[in-house]
Design goal:
This protein has 270 residues and is of the alpha/beta class. It contains ten helices and ten strands. An eight-stranded parallel sheet has the order 3-4-5-6-7-8-9-10. The chain binds NADP nicotinamide-adenine-dinucleotide phosphate (NAP).
Length: 270
Amino acid sequence: MIYRHVQGVDVPALGLGTWLLRGAACREAIRDALEIGYRHVDTAQAYENEGAVGQGWTDAGFARDEVFITTKLQMNTTARKSVRDSVERSLEALRSEYVDLLLIHWPPTRGDVDEALDAMAALREEGKARLIGVSNFPSRLWLHAIDRAPVSINQVEYHPYLGQTRLLEVAREHDQLLTAYSPIAKGSVLRDPVLREIGEEHGKSPVQVALRWLLQQDRVLAVPKAASAAHRRANLDLFDFELTQHELNRISALDEGRRLIDPAWGPDWD
Ligand SMILES: NC(=O)c1ccc[n+]([C@@H]2O[C@H](COP(=O)([O-])OP(=O)(O)OC[C@H]3O[C@@H](n4cnc5c(N)ncnc54)[C@H](OP(=O)(O)O)[C@@H]3O)[C@@H](O)[C@H]2O)c1
């Protein structure tokens, strides 16, 4: 595993995404993932699986500080009391006294983002969140959040077909990290001829090449989701090869602004 460092915290650069994983399948996926070497799990209040994540990591028998857990506030949870109450419920479900990273899942469409940021900063002060951050924030909103509160991460869609040049600039200029969600474009990179050709050079699949491309970028993390045990293993098998600068450039050139997650409530993207 490789780690990114921010605000004195080591963050495992590869995490397991859990959107759409629920119940016993989620619990078992988390236990298995931790046993084979994952150290970072990405959940959210909206995924309705925090209880299964809590069971999964405790089943695996690790000490709490060996596992990095991210959760996200339900959309439009901005009032101080509702932020606090919802985090208390998350902590109970996750069987933990703190989360490693607490994110605003989407820029609020109503309510006051500053109130949410202030409430999260207070929870961080109290040790209930080691890091705080945002998700789906374009640069303008991210910069506002950086000004307001000690945020350190933005989680956004990022894969070879959707570049994030502007957000990477913000990350570099403001000592922030960028987490790539849908990092393998929901599995669609599998069919990509360029990634396939590069993979053949290294004995790796197009999915592994796409993940390696992300992890070779400074300040970037990735949270691929895999319900299948074989996929979870493949997605962890990234640390025994290196892409050349030429290969990295070829993959970056696949950017065509293809956004897979663009709901009606989404912000004006960069
Ligand atoms: N902050 C946000 O708003 C937001 C939005 C979207 C996602 N996310 C987070 O990011 C995570 C990942 O994003 P995602 O779930 O949208 O998409 P993704 O990780 O890009 O793709 C997941 C899909 O790829 C398949 N897959 C995984 N590994 C594979 C492999 N080695 N070979 C072939 N296929 C493979 C999975 O199949 P199986 O599951 O069948 O193994 C699944 O169908 C989510 O689970 C969630 O935690 C956050």
